[in-house]
Automatic annotation (TrEMBL):
<dbReference type="GO" id="GO:0043565">
    <property type="term" value="F:sequence-specific DNA binding"/>
</dbReference>
<feature type="domain" description="HTH araC/xylS-type">
    <location>
        <begin position="825"/>
        <end position="924"/>
    </location>
</feature>
<dbReference type="GO" id="GO:0003700">
    <property type="term" value="F:DNA-binding transcription factor activity"/>
</dbReference>
<dbReference type="InterPro" id="IPR004358">
    <property type="entry name" value="Sig_transdc_His_kin-like_C"/>
</dbReference>
<dbReference type="Pfam" id="PF13407">
    <property type="entry name" value="Peripla_BP_4"/>
</dbReference>
<dbReference type="InterPro" id="IPR025997">
    <property type="entry name" value="SBP_2_dom"/>
</dbReference>
<dbReference type="Pfam" id="PF12833">
    <property type="entry name" value="HTH_18"/>
</dbReference>
<dbReference type="InterPro" id="IPR028082">
    <property type="entry name" value="Peripla_BP_I"/>
</dbReference>
<dbReference type="Pfam" id="PF00072">
    <property type="entry name" value="Response_reg"/>
</dbReference>
<feature type="transmembrane region" description="Helical">
    <location>
        <begin position="354"/>
        <end position="376"/>
    </location>
</feature>
<dbReference type="GO" id="GO:0000155">
    <property type="term" value="F:phosphorelay sensor kinase activity"/>
</dbReference>
<dbReference type="InterPro" id="IPR009057">
    <property type="entry name" value="Homeodomain-like_sf"/>
</dbReference>
<keyword id="KW-1133">Transmembrane helix</keyword>
<dbReference type="InterPro" id="IPR018062">
    <property type="entry name" value="HTH_AraC-typ_CS"/>
</dbReference>
<dbReference type="InterPro" id="IPR003661">
    <property type="entry name" value="HisK_dim/P_dom"/>
</dbReference>
<dbReference type="InterPro" id="IPR005467">
    <property type="entry name" value="His_kinase_dom"/>
</dbReference>
<keyword id="KW-0597">Phosphoprotein</keyword>
């Protein structure tokens, strides 16, 4: 036995080494044969205006040809059949199916634009194909240049006619963008050839029957026509048939557009001699799919992809035909090769599975042998080591428990002292703030220097009180004494109210503050006192680290699939460094690169309060580009956290010491009715700007800008009641600012005061001619300036009252003599045209005017001093007075004809306006008559 045991052990070790070597060899071979990671799967939706013509079918064929190279892409097509409402429903259906990218060819630009913008705002890429929408909110555009197509046709026609002859143009559907652009390009080209004259035009609906019906009469009236330019090949074929009927097929040259392959395509028509030439207008299906794949794969792409055009005539028609046939043949070969490749892949996958099973079995046998060999040798040694380690672990555990108990006692004592000390600070702070507030509010004759010092004391005392309150919140969270009392409310309105506090300090620093809720109302249960502190801290932190002319964006996005709602606060500041990221939520941590000396409690408190609300607070940041903090809240809270009583929001606190927010006590009390008026001061000299602001703020609300471009932007955004502008401004002069303001109907009604050091009479005349309402030279009397502003505002009120009286007469249409009157005339015409619609909304009117709802409301409010809804109601009631003077209609018929939902509502509105009911009004005027 002493000789057998070593030999057996040696043989076992040799066998194991050989088996393991074989296993390793098999695994290496398998690793060399494994597939790379499969490409990601994408879902593309295509909303087509129609598939009813050959050109659109060629577009779809090109898409399918290109998609054959991407079997991982799922492609869904929806045919709107020339119906814009159906196309909008189909796009919404594609959204519900969960697409990754949308390709859309709009039937009509304006009706489809809102749903396309909604898709884009949801973060889904949008590729516009062939027909554009009216918005710039899309990811990429693919299509031809119809103006260039028309221009190429014009140049070719002039060449065919040797720059002398008579031309007839067959246009597409009137008002359609391809027809308008092709005609414009054709006219531009012919303008360069005086000998070529466009003698006639024929409209069509893009289809051949319309040409057969309309062209014969025109050709008989113009027998001198030498060439016909048709806007597509179907129209060109119809023109040829008409010429043949009239016996002029050999005298008139015909040029079409599209250049499609196939038996009925333009290339075949050229080759058969039916038409002289056709212009290639690529459907763009392949390019649309290539662009979509670049976007989905995050590869570089062009936003504007304009497809080229070329002339196809007898010199190259055969070549084009052979090329298209060759491409079709190659596509069929590719499809057959893909089928064979898929079969080989399936075979390879099945063989690979068998090989993996065999390798796994061999590896399992080798591992079991190795385990059995080592277990006997290692087991005894491990058991001996475990005995010693267990004893050592028991001793260490007892020591750790003693240390933990001692640390708990010491930490509790420190926190107790910390809390008590914070409580003690509140009493002296109250005694400081009370007298300071009383002195500031009850002593109007207080010297300016003293008032400045007292304001400084008050501001820093309030800052100290805010720090104390944060310490108290920290302690409450730590000991679990801050309960959650959630009430149901609108989260969008709640966040908007918090953002209102930051609008003025952001505006003063030139920071753009944007609010982007995905939905107008998001209802959920939340504690307003807790979330107020969370969002206030995040916005305060973002504003502190965002430089001038930066941007802060707050978005709200419900995620029903995860039962949460996400609120993100994104800034364009300097970002968070790598060494600070791990400690950003730690208490009292201020960061190694921090330049603002804060308390280091804001973000830590926000995190603690968010978790207390069963939510999450995360962040992402790129140094030099900004940071994004995301608060994720559950859509539903447990019943024990809900409160039957609505809690009032706690007053917002400036958590970050680097941020100074406006306080109501800092603003002077209103001195008259003009306190609500908003004055915009545009002055590039900071000292003069500050002086004007100081003089005007006690009497008006004041916005400021240091250059003309910023002033124009603020004027369009805020619609101030009056503008004070310097003439000598950098880049954009004051006279140019006035001209642009008076030329823009949104701001044309605003009185403008020009300030300048140029006092020559001709210069003053130049300023008044530019549109200024008042021209003051420097140095100016501040009192005179103040009284002048009040006079201008009073005159503006009288003008607004004049407009209201003019609109309340029996004739509601206003003569378009000035810009404001032209605006009111257009507005009145739109309302009168839709007065019978009971569902007429402010959005409908704004859309008809081509402006936003907010811009319409601000303009009507500034010109008439009333809302858009009241204006619509006034037009309806004015019309009612006219209709009630006749006996042709009953009162109920008048009500329904004017868009009122019911006769009773009409009677109530009429009596509230004229103090008599409709029946009393009719009886009174009938008796009077």
């Amino acid at each position: 036995m002493s000789q057998f045991t070593p030999s057996a052990s040696f043989l076992l070790r040799s066998a194991l080494r050989g088996g393991l070597g074989l296993v390793c060899l098999v695994l290496v071979l398998l690793a060399g044969c494994t597939h790379s990671a499969p490409p990601p799967k994408y879902r593309i939706g295509f909303s087509q205006c129609t598939n009813g013509d050959a050109w659109r079918q060629a577009m779809l064929a090109g898409m399918k040809k290109e998609l054959s190279f991407y079997p991982e892409v799922s492609f869904t097509i929806k045919d709107a059949r020339y119906n814009s409402a159906l196309q909008e429903q189909q796009i919404k259906e594609l959204l519900r199916q969960g697409i990754d990218l949308l390709i859309v060819s709009a039937n009509e630009a304006e009706p489809v634009t809102p749903i396309v913008e909604e898709v884009y705002n949801r973060g889904i890429p949008v590729v516009i194909l062939d027909r554009r929408t009216t918005s710039k909110l899309y990811t990429a555009y693919v299509g031809g240049n119809n103006v260039e197509v028309g221009r190429t046709a014009g140049n070719y026609a002039a060449s065919l006619l040797k720059q002398r002859g008579q031309v007839l143009e067959v246009l597409g559907a009137p008002g359609s963008s391809p027809a308008v652009d092709r005609h414009r390009g054709f006219g531009q080209a012919l303008a360069a050839y005086p000998g070529v004259q466009l003698v006639a035009q024929v409209n069509s609906n893009w289809e051949r029957p319309s040409v057969l019906a309309r062209l014969p009469a025109v050709l008989r009236a113009h027998p001198e026509v030498d060439l016909i330019f048709a806007h597509n090949d179907r129209l060109a074929l119809g023109a040829y048939q008409v010429c043949k009927q009239l016996g002029r097929q050999n005298q008139v040259k015909i040029v079409g557009v599209d250049g499609l392959p196939g038996m009925r395509g333009g290339i075949q028509l050229v080759q058969d001699g039916v038409i002289t030439a056709t212009l290639l207008y690529s459907p763009g299906g392949e390019e649309a799919i290539r662009t979509a794949l670049k976007i989905l794969r995050r590869q570089p792409y062009d936003k504007e992809n304009i497809l080229g055009t070329m002339v196809i005539d007898s010199t190259n028609a055969l070549t084009m035909k052979l090329q298209t046939e060759k491409l079709g043949s190659q596509q069929q070969d590719i499809q057959r090769q893909q089928q064979l490749l898929q079969q080989q892949r399936d075979t390879y996958a099945s063989q690979q599975t068998v090989l993996y099973v065999l390798a796994a079995a061999l590896l399992g046998a080798a591992v079991l042998g190795a385990v059995a060999f080592r277990a006997f040798r290692v087991n005894r040694r491990i058991n001996q080591q475990l005995e010693g380690q267990n004893e050592e672990i028991r001793q260490q555990r007892n020591q750790i428990q003693d240390f933990a108990e001692q640390a708990k006692v010491e930490t509790e004592a420190k926190l107790r002292f910390f809390t008590n000390f914070s409580h003690e600070l509140r009493t002296p702070l109250t005694l400081i703030l009370g007298p300071v507030e009383e002195m500031l509010t009850s002593a109007p004759d207080l010297p300016a220097a003293h008032r400045h010092d007292l304001s400084l004391v008050r501001r820093n005392a309030q800052r100290l009180l805010q720090l104390v309150n944060q310490l108290m919140d920290f302690r409450k969270i730590d000991v679990g004494k801050m309960p959650v009392r959630a009430t149901e409310g609108n989260l969008v309105a709640f966040v908007r109210e918090i953002m209102d506090v930051f609008e003025k300090p952001a505006r003063q620093r030139g920071v753009s503050l944007r609010f982007l809720p995905a939905e107008p109302v998001v209802r959920l249960w939340f504690d307003v006192n807790i979330l107020d502190k969370v969002f206030f801290n995040l916005l305060s932190n973002a504003l502190k680290f965002t430089p001038e002319r930066g941007q802060i964006s707050v978005s709200i996005q419900p995620v029903p699939a995860d039962h949460v709602v996400r609120i993100s606060v994104e800034d364009t500041g300097r970002g968070i460094s790598e060494q600070d990221r791990a400690h950003i939520f730690e208490w009292f941590y201020q960061g190694n690169q921090s330049t603002a000396k804060g308390s280091g409690m804001g973000l830590a408190l926000a995190l603690g309060l968010t978790r207390l609300h069963l939510g999450q607070l995360t962040f992402s940041s790129q140094p030099g580009q900004g940071s994004t903090f995301v608060v994720t809240l559950p859509l539903e809270l447990p019943p024990e956290l809900r409160s039957a009583e609505a809690a009032l929001p706690a007053p917002a606190l400036a958590i970050d010491e680097g941020l100074t927010l406006p306080k109501a006590e800092d603003a002077p009390l209103p001195t008259g009715a003009t306190r609500e008026a908003l004055i915009l001061v545009i002055e590039d000299n900071p000292d003069v700007n500050a002086f004007l602001t100081q003089k005007l703020q006690p009497h008006f609300q004041v916005d400021t800008a240091l250059d003309g471009a910023t002033g124009l932007r603020l004027a369009a955004d805020t619609i101030p009641d009056l503008i004070v502008c310097d003439v000598m401004l950098p880049e954009l002069s004051g006279l140019e600012v006035v001209a642009q303001l008076k030329g823009d109907w949104r701001t044309s009604h605003i009185p403008i005061v020009l300030l300048t050091a140029r006092n020559a009479p001709e210069q003053q005349v130049e300023g008044v001619q530019a549109g200024a309402d008042l021209y003051l030279t420097k140095p100016f009397n501040p009192t005179f300036l103040l009284e002048s502003l009040r006079t201008l505002l009073a005159n503006r009120d009288r003008q607004r009252e004049h407009f209201r009286r003019e609109l309340s007469t029996d004739t509601v249409t206003v003569a378009p003599q000035r810009v404001d009157q032209k605006f009111l005339a257009d507005l009145t015409a739109i309302v009168e045209a839709n007065v019978s619609r009971s569902d007429l909304s402010v959005e409908d009117v704004a859309r008809s005017l081509g402006i936003s709802r907010v811009q319409l409301y601000r303009k009507v409010k500034a010109v008439l001093g009333t809302g858009v809804t009241d204006f619509i109601q006034g037009v309806r009631l004015t019309k009612a007075r006219q209709l009630l003077l006749t006996d042709d209609l009953t009162i109920a018929e008048v009500a329904y004809q004017l868009g009122f939902s019911s006769p009773s509502y009409f009677s109530t509105s009429f009596k509230a306006r004229y103090q008599v009911s409709p029946s009393e009004f009719r009886a009174l005027h009938t008796t009077a008559g």
